[in-house]
Amino acid sequence: MKRNAIWYKVGWGVLLIMLMMSCKKFVDPALIFEKEPENTKVKTRKVLIIAVDGLSGIALEKYTPQHIQKLLEHAKYTYAGLSDASSGDASTWATLLSGKSSAKHGVYGDSFEEDIDEDDPHGHNSSGQATGYITFFQRILEQGKRMRSFSATSRQELDDNALDYAETRIVKANDEEVKKTAIDTLKSTLTNTSFGVINFRGVNEAGKSGGFSLSNAAYKAAIDKIDGYIGEIKAAIEGRSAFENEDWLIVVTANHGGLGQGYGGASLEERKIPIILYNPNFVGQKMEAPALVNSMEIKTKDANMPTITAANTDIYDIKDDKEYTIMCKVKNNVKPTGGNHAVILGRVTHAYTGGNGWAFMIEGANTGKYRFYLADKNASNNQLQVVGSLAGEVGKWETLAVKLYKKDDGKRYAKFYVNGVAGEERDITTGRGSFQAPTANFFVGSGNVSSVGTFNGMVNNLVFVTKALSDEEIQSYNCLGTVDESTSFWSQTAGFWSMDDIGQRTFKNKVATSLDTDFKFPNGNYTWNLNAKWNCLSEQENAKFFIMNQYDIVPQIAYWMDIKPQDSWLLDGKLFLDKYEMEFLK
Predict the structure, then answer these.
(1) Are 220 and 173 in contact (CB under 8 A)?
(2) Residue 501's Cα: distance from chain center in Å?
(3) Within this chain, do residues 460 and 526 fall inside the same structural domain, yes or no?
């Protein structure tokens, strides 16, 4: 009983403590009112293209007037942008507004009507790969968004064929009226205007009448006038009532440059244009372009290859007991497969049995190595292969060289070099007669000789020297851009063909005065490519270079306007503005 009384008292005690704890008051913390975040309105992105026909990037780099110069402080820009390889008025505009090269949109030259299906002028019923084009104005309409657009030009054909999907279309008599009306449109149009194109023609007309260079006073004056217009247009944009809520990308560019008083070809003078992408938040940056070279694609095997006929090639025969060095630049598009060894160039009657002469070759994929082939049809084994040290690569300029030289033992030897690295020395005297081939043509490509494979690539800077150059001279050719009077071996040079003679049907011999030693190719269809030129810079230094093409403009403006290009657009251009988002995404 006593134990139960004790537990009874303990139980009441615990209960009392719990009751006391339940009655304890706690002080509530003070209320803290957090400040609501500010209502940061996202600015609406808009694009204006100012396209100055005939404004040469070469000329503008030498003389940049004040308003354009001011834009560069906040622009990603280049003076070495590349217009379409067909630098006519129509072809370049089709490229500018479609983001595709003429090889895809099918417009060549100055007229939009040349290669367009009248029943399908914009390629709506086709893939767009062969002919036809869809401009960015129509791409805007495809989005189903309320994005207003306008265009302004003095060229009716341009308005009819490339600007016809703009919501507001302005065609005036001259640049002055185009500028005034465009400014009025920018000032008065509702705030949802998203895209505009303004075209000026005066610079082009001045170039056609007196030359596309600063030595033409009228051309320089026309550039100054357009520069003033650009300043006024920029001020009009910044004066818009809704400007504080807008984020404008202003693109200043050209359709093409010019050579002499003309254009339409694929020379650098005709193709180099300014491309200026301005936004006040951009950090100014000049996009440095590498040195460029025009190269003809060689990928067939027939009699239409660039050729010097046999009657004029005796000087390029491998004479008995003479010393020679032959060098060139080569870029492979693809490698031969299997055992399909391919002739790159040479002076030979047959690439294997029964012939005489010499040739540069690339072996099939089994080895992929370069080699120099010497043919002596009277020898028991008429094929003598001098193999290079390295296998050929794809898409990379490589320097090939062969040296034939005599030694104190009275014999003649040969070495083949790839990028200055020598392969194994070969005795080309023992068991050999003559390599001379008096009936052989000198040709570039696989020609119509009986070789198994077909070379697919490009060749530039072929040089034939009538002496054995030192290893140091051969190695220096890796970096040499040209051969001229300043070159150490110029006096012994029998032929130098840069092979960048675009628009011609010849590769001119820069040494000889006679046309008989030019490579000629009057027939056949060939494609010209503009390539970054070979150099001896490091990979890190080369990575700084950037080639900005005319067809790159569409991907940039699509990105700016939050329009996602579809695969079906078949764009040639690539986006790069997104790499600089840290500058303009606030």
Answers:
(1) no
(2) 18
(3) yes
pLDDT in 10s for each residue of the chain, 586 residues: 444 444 444 454 544 444 444 444 444 555 444 444 444 568 999 999 999 999 999 999 999 999 999 999 999 999 999 999 889 999 999 999 999 998 888 898 888 864 544 544 444 443 344 446 899 999 999 988 788 999 999 999 999 999 999 999 999 999 999 999 999 999 886 667 899 999 999 999 999 999 999 999 999 999 999 999 999 999 999 999 999 999 999 999 999 999 999 999 888 999 999 999 999 999 999 999 999 999 999 888 877 889 999 999 999 999 988 999 999 999 999 988 777 888 999 998 776 666 789 999 998 877 889 999 998 877 656 778 899 988 999 999 999 999 999 999 999 999 999 999 999 999 998 777 788 888 899 999 987 665 567 899 999 999 999 999 999 999 999 999 999 999 999 999 999 999 998 877 899 999 977 779 999 998 877 888 888 999 888 888 888 898 999 999 999 999 999 999 999 999 999 999 999 999 998 7
Cα→Cα distances 504→61, 225, 294, 300, 526, Å: 28, 36, 12, 19, 11
Residue 106: which residues within 8 A CB-CB, separation 6 or more? 115, 116, 123, 130, 131, 132, 133
C-alpha gyration radius of the chain: 34
**Total number of domains in the chain:** 2
218 and 254 housed in the same domain: yes
CB-CB neighbours of 578 under 10 Å: 10
Strand 75-82 to 272-278 pairing:
antiparallel
Whether residue 201 sits in one domain with residue 305: no
First-to-last alpha carbon distance for the chain, in angstroms, is 83
Instruction: Confirm whether 302 is domain-assigned.
Output: yes
Say how far apart CA 271 and CA 255 lie, in whole Å: 9
Alpha-carbon distance 466 to 322, whole Å? 8
Helix (H) or strand (E) holding 560, with range, is helix 553-560
CATH number at 345 reads 2.60.120.200
Domain assignment present for 438? yes
Task: Measure Cα distances from 477 to 332, 420, 523 in Å.
Answer: 19, 8, 32
Distance from C-alpha of 349 to C-alpha of 299, rounded to nearest angstrom = 20
Same domain, 322 and 433: yes
Domain stops at, among 519, 537, 555: 537
Q: Report the distance separating Cα 147 and Cα 418, nearest Å.
A: 57
Torsion over CA: 172, 176, 179, 180 (sign): negative
324 within 8 A of 339, measured Cβ to Cβ? no
Question: What is the value of pTM for the model shown?
Answer: 0.78
Determine which helix (DSSP H) or strand (DSSP E) holds 338, and give its type and residue range: none
Q: Which tokens is 396 given? A: 């990379």
